[in-house]
Write a structure and sequence with these properties.
Elements: E1 13-19, E2 32-38, E3 47-55, H1 59-64, E4 83-91, E5 101-105, E6 111-114, E7 119-122, H2 139-152, E8 159-163, H3 170-179, E9 183-188, H4 191-199, E10 205-208, H5 214-221, E11 226-231, H6 235-242, E12 245-253, H7 272-277, E13 281-284, H8 294-306, E14 314-318, H9 326-331, E15 338-342
Parallel strand pairs: 8-9, 8-11, 9-10, 11-12, 12-13, 14-15
Antiparallel strand pairs: 1-2, 3-4, 3-6, 3-15, 4-5, 5-7
Helix pairs in contact: 2-3, 2-8
Bound molecules: NADP nicotinamide-adenine-dinucleotide phosphate.
Length: 345
């Protein structure tokens, strides 16, 4: 078989980050290796995307672990699954021409050969910087928006509690809630982050959740109870928040960052009595279940960014070499805003 000709101006090799062993819990740099593969030929209906920004997401922990009940784990030996922003550099699909920018499932690598099913959104480069489409106009913005409004369903006068409040999702939840005059309270993992919650992200009050035990923090921050809990951590904060929910309150279970691993199954306080007696609605959020709502949410988020009403922070490092340690860095709380790896344009 002949080697495909290298498309013009493209290097002949694709650098890839490979999952080389299966982690239990948080993947470390040692669970990944690099390789280089030659560029594959395109089949009819496919296109080649040159990645520009690779996304780093807490969910990648779940994608690498065995036993996830919502997605197949990345096979050992495969390119690490990841969202990315890129540009089409070669195409055999009439509706996806060269030069089109996309956000989708392109993996931690220089180039992805994909079809339309891998695309999450087409990017309008005039509306916002490219990086925004991997964060505030990507999974993070959509999760904040749809989790808060569709599952949280806040009503006038509600108190909303948010964990990882200064993160890529949490910083947006705070601002979106404040813009509709809800009373929004944040918990973040260091003093600089909690200060930004109130100075920049719309929170009426915030605290460093490492500065005191969960029960006394919540007694101080939400003395009258919680209507909506947008929870990204689970663990002790969730255990204590459940006991402070108001009757008919809603919990949006968006993430479980505080639980370092699920095997063996962790134990904690029981929840059923709180759910029953407080008549709570506890909703699990998987944002891709709500793809029919993406266009409306993205139009609103884009408008807010363009009018300067929505701030977003990005934590960008340059070079594929940063990828293997990037998930562990998130779980150490070292990111300030959306974690991205820039590969160049
Ligand atoms: N359900 C969905 O469809 C969906 C989609 C996207 C994101 N999410 C979830 O949304 C959450 C935020 O995601 P993101 O992309 O915006 O990340 P992020 O908040 O920017 O970064 C992750 C943050 O998690 C916090 N964290 C790490 N370990 C923790 C621990 N042991 N206890 C408490 N907090 C810990 C750290 O913040 P601190 O320094 O403040 O502790 C870290 O900065 C994650 O749980 C993610 O899984 C869910």
């Amino acid at each position: 078989m002949s080697t495909p000709a290298t498309p013009r101006n493209l290097p002949g090799r694709n650098r890839r980050v490979i999952l080389s062993s299966r982690p239990v819990g948080i993947p470390q740099a040692s669970h990944f290796t690099f390789d280089e593969a030659s560029l594959e030929s395109l089949a009819e209906g496919q296109f080649r995307v040159r990645n520009i920004y690779l996304s780093v997401d807490p969910a990648q922990r779940g994608w690498t672990n065995e036993g996830s009940n919502y997605s197949q784990p990345v096979p050992v030996g495969d390119v690490m699954r990841a969202l990315a922003v890129g540009v089409i550099v070669e195409s055999r699909h009439a509706e996806f021409p060269e030069g089109l920018h996309l956000y989708g499932w392109f993996g931690w690598q220089d180039y992805a050969v994909v079809g339309p099913q891998a695309v999450v959104t087409r990017i309008d480069v005039i509306q916002a910087p490219l990086s925004a489409y991997a964060g505030v106009l990507g999974i993070n913005g959509l999760t904040a928006y749809l989790g808060l409004f569709k599952l949280g369903r806040p009503k006038a006068g509600d108190t909303i509690l948010v964990t990882t409040a200064a993160g890529a999702v949490g910083s947006l939840v705070g601002q979106l809630a404040q813009a509709r005059a809800f009373h929004v309270i944040g918990l973040a993992g260091d003093d600089a982050k909690f200060a930004r919650c109130t100075s920049r992200f719309g929170y009426a009050a915030a605290a460093n959740y490492k500065s005191a035990d969960a029960a006394s923090l919540l007694d101080r921050l939400v003395p009258d109870g919680i209507d909506v809990f947008f929870d990204n951590t689970g663990g002790d904060l969730l255990d204590q928040a459940l006991r402070r929910m108001k009757t008919g309150g809603r919990i949006v279970q968006c993430g479980t960052a505080a639980v370092s691993q699920w095997s063996p199954t962790p134990t904690g306080l029981r929840a059923e009595r709180e759910i029953l007696t407080r008549r709570l609605i506890w909703s699990g959020l998987l944002v891709f279940d709500h793809s029919e709502d993406f266009p409306g949410a993205l139009a609103d988020l884009t408008g807010r960014i363009r009018s300067g009403m929505l701030h977003y922070e990005e934590d960008i490092v340059t070079g594929l070499l940063h990828a293997p340690g990037a998930i562990a860095r998130l779980y150490d709380g070292r990111n300030n805003g959306k974690s991205l790896i820039y590969l160049g344009e």
